[in-house]
């Protein structure tokens, strides 16, 4: 799932909506570790993890 976090015209809330709209069990969700995406990732990531943790999802990093 491409969240759109790199798109500076989107708000953190819009990125969260993009991420939750398209995420299903087994999805790989992409968040970018960059200055360009930092504000949106810092807003979205904790909310996204809490939202899906409450639904029983688990997470792991890909290397």
How would you describe this protein?
With 63 residues, the protein is mostly helical. The protein has one domain (1-63). It has two helices and no strands. Helix 1 (12-22) packs across helix 2. The longest helix is centred in the last third of the chain and has 16 residues, at 38-53.
Keywords:
63 residues, mainly alpha
Short description:
With 63 residues, this protein is mainly α. It has helices at 12-22, 38-53.
Give the SSE map.
Elements: H1 12-22, H2 38-53
Strand content: under 5%
Terminal CA distance: 17 Å
Radius of gyration from CA coordinates: 11 Å
Low confidence ranges: none
> What is the 3D form?
globular
Mean pLDDT over all positions: 94
Assign the structural class, choosing from mainly alpha, mainly beta, alpha/beta, alpha+beta, or little secondary structure. mainly alpha
Percent helix range: 40-55%
Q: What composes the largest sheet? A: none
Q: SSE order in H/E notation?
A: HH
Number of helices: 2
Quaternary structure classification = single chain
* Structural domains: how many: 1
What's the total count of β strands? 0
């Amino acid at each position: 799932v491409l969240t759109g976090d790199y798109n500076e015209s989107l708000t953190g809330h819009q990125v969260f909506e993009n991420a939750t709209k398209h995420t299903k069990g087994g999805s790989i969700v992409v968040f970018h570790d960059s200055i360009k995406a930092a504000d949106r990732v810092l807003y979205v990531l904790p909310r996204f993890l809490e939202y899906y943790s409450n639904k029983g999802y688990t997470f792991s990093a890909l290397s």
